[in-house]
Specification:
Structural class of chain A: alpha/beta
CATH topology of the largest domain in chain A: Rossmann fold
Helix content of chain A: 40-55%
Largest sheet of chain A: 6 strands, parallel
Number of helices of chain A: 13
Radius of gyration of chain A: 25 Å
CATH superfamily of the largest domain in chain A: Response regulator
Number of domains of chain A: 3
Oligomer: homodimer
Shape of chain A: elongated
CATH class of the largest domain in chain A: Alpha Beta
DNA sequence: CTGTTAGCGCCTTCAA
DNA sequence: TTGAAGGCGCTAACAG
């Protein structure tokens, strides 16, 4: 049962290969009678068009390149679930590129992705900077391959189609909730590495603090638990430190912080209220359960794929910058009750 | 700068296209002088061989199909990290197939994977059953495409190259540690769905219990926190229930169980000792920190890719069944101290 | 060491 | 509605 080709099918169905090709790609151009005969033979022989030959001849691959920074981040993995399900709807395949531990420079890699003949690119590296953004633009223009940024944004420009949530607003909102609780010494726990989305959260936090005339305190730490625990220890060593509220840019950082303060015999949320970001499994597995911003990450993935598909089909995407709604989930690390 | 072809390069370098092809694929067959000239032109033009044409002509794709059940499982995501890094070493690309929510039957999907001309398949659906195993064998034989099972095993046969850890032994060991602690009422918390690896853990647990002449108690629950919390509630409602030790087949189940019992004012590990499986981030983010079996999941991914590469290259893989060592990490949910 | 040439399997006009 | 034929960009003999 080895690799039937279009010729085998044509011969067995007593038609030319052109007809076989048509019944697969333009069924309406084939007489129903012969069409069914061909389809039957196709099934019998287990024929599947060779993707290479098809791609070479048609200049299309029904494959999209997916570029991610690191699979182990829960948000990335979940987004891929959304992307995969949506891609299936269009019969698109996913070519996965993981940037992690990459010595290869990104420009080189993007050319490689393009060379692999993908019809479009889903880019979700939220460490994006000006240079990379420019590079993506160049690639899109030079090779005419549409690119969509998923849960990744470059706020200083909007030439690339983007799907995201309003992180600025989300951070602004949770900070305000803490303020409404009466918290005065609210800290932002963010990453030391430059993630664009975290920068936006920081701005939202700063805005809320400024409006309330409170002094902002930003602590930069790592997503790595063993590292941030040390940071937290140092933080509490500072003489006269006061903390009664925390916004963490990731659930894992929030949970890890909660653990730190509970070990110091402080009460959550009586002494300190904490918000996380993302609503990952960490949030519901922690004790107390973490209050956090809920990001519809699967939907972001699905929507990203849908937008890309539109672009591939040549439908002009009128709105470049797409925002999905977030929500705030009150669990056990805050006192706010949702109205 | 649009899509240079091999002809453009040949023309610009004043050689034939064959020479260009050679400098890329068999550099030693080209005079260093011309080779460098060609390489320079290639660089100038930003030429990258069209993957389709290359694949069509060479019958190789340097792409492997990766079949996973669900991205959101931490183990799957981590394994992909390992696979990706290893694949990069060989300049292999990854074509990702997510089974989740799949209405398409698996046979159909596998043919699709094959039709996409992958050089090999990495299969990591640990819900594998006899039928699927047979199917994989058929695919491998019919299409001559090597398949490697990663962290997935079918213990009743070993025709397919497999890379895994000894889950049976691991479960046997942790159960014994609990027994050595003096625990008498040890429960196994496993999944209701049939995962082959979890079945093996169950057998290891049963063996240890039997040897110690203790009554085994198996509770089948879900990976879903909201669901298993309910199961745990029911469990504790049983009249006269006694639990002093737990082996959970997943970290998340273990953590969720620990939360349940602490809410019931029991002490961990004074009243109950708990072991998880995998050593995910959940294990270190929980409070108390979870003791668990550490699975070298990234290594499994990398090794799987390495094995597949061997098979693709025609090197016979002598050992079909490959086992990577695990270890037991004692943290705060058990009393055992590692010797 | 280099060039010529014949495909790889399929799509897509162009005729019939 | 169908068939014939050219070509997609590249690899791999085979000559030279």
């Amino acid at each position: 049962m080895n690799k039937a080709t279009i010729y085998n099918v044509a011969y067995a169905a007593n038609v030319s290969l052109a007809t076989v090709s048509r019944t697969l790609n333009n069924p309406q151009k084939v007489k129903p009678e012969t069409r069914e005969r061909v389809l039957r033979v196709i099934k019998e022989l287990g024929y599947k068009p060779n993707a290479f030959a098809k791609g070479l001849a048609s200049k299309k691959s029904t494959t999209v390149g997916v570029i991610v920074p690191d699979m182990s981040r829960a948000s990335i993995a979940e987004m891929l679930n959304g992307i995969a399900v949506e891609a299936r709807k269009y019969d698109y395949s996913l070519l996965l590129y993981v940037l992690k531990n990459e010595k290869v420079e990104e420009a080189e890699m993007l050319r490689e992705v393009v060379a692999s003949q993908v019809d479009g690119i889903l880019y979700m590296n939220d460490e994006i900077n000006e240079e990379q953004y420019a590079l993506l633009n160049t690639i899109q223009d030079d090779y005419k391959v549409p690119i969509v940024l998923a849960n990744t944004l470059y706020p200083y420009d909007n030439k690339l189609v983007t799907i995201c949530i309003d992180y600025f607003k989300a951070a602004y909102e949770v900070t305000n909730r803490l303020i409404e609780e009466g918290r005065q010494h609210i800290y932002l726990l963010t990453t030391a590495r430059k993630y664009m989305v975290n920068d936006l959260k920081e701005e939202g936090y700063l805005k809320a603090m400024k409006e309330a005339r409170l002094t902002p305190r930003v602590v930069r730490t790592s997503g790595d638990i063993s590292v941030n625990t040390i940071h937290f220890d140092e933080l509490f060593k500072e003489p006269g430190i006061q903390i009664d509220g925390v916004v963490a840019v990731r659930d894992s950082i929030a949970v890890s912080f909660v653990n730190s303060i509970i070990e110091r015999s402080k009460k959550v949320p009586d002494d300190i209220s904490v918000y996380g970001f993302q609503n990952t499994k960490y949030a519901s597995l922690s004790r107390p359960k973490l209050s956090c911003v809920d990001i519809p990450i699967i939907d972001i993935g699905a929507k990203a794929m849908a937008l890309l598909k539109q672009e591939i089909d040549g439908e002009t995407v009128d709105v470049k910058f797409n925002v999905l709604p977030h929500s705030i989930i009150e669990r056990q690390t805050t006192k706010s009750s949702v109205e």
